[in-house]
Amino acid sequence: MRDQETDDFEVDRLSGASGMNSNLPPYSMDDQLLPMERRSPCGCWIWACLVAAINVLVFLLNFLLLAAIFAVVLLPTIVVVYFGFQCHSRVLHSAVSYCKTVLDDNSSSALIILGFVIMSPLMVIAMAIYCSLVRRLRLFLCFQPWARAVYKGVKWRWLEDGGPRGCLGECNSNIKAWV
């Protein structure tokens, strides 16, 4: 009885694995009637370079947007910590006039502590602003699938959303997300 259960399990596992086709791309192809044709090796390399370049540009755009938002939102923390470290006698002890007249070691320590304390809430605010802006601009829809390089006939996601500006189009009001 035990051997029969093991044989049935192996047959079910093999029959389930044989139904999968490894040649198809990993996304849904409900709207396509015929199986897609593979590109030639040369065409595959050219399209792979094009898709990689587009995806790298979209990644850099996202990274620059992230860096700009974090730089603007964290600017108060950067300034406060900078002045705290600049005027403390055991760190840099600058000879600037405001370090001698306004800030002593105790006030410099207070600035350093204040800067690190306000950093956490400002990072949360910066990340919320970035996520909201990326969702509104739909920047992640600009990434192209790698299957475009391998198969002929894969639609550009831009065309489904209204042209090259489709991935940067207006926000869909039906999509709700908590940030």
UniProtKB/TrEMBL annotation:
The chain crosses the membrane at residues 44-75, 110-131. PANTHER family: TRANSMEMBRANE PROTEIN 88-RELATED, TRANSMEMBRANE PROTEIN 88B. Keywords: Membrane, Transmembrane, Transmembrane helix. This is Transmembrane protein 88. Belongs to the TMEM88 family. The keyword Transmembrane applies. It comes from Salvator merianae (Argentine black and white tegu). One of its GO terms (cellular component) is plasma membrane. InterPro entries: TMEM88.
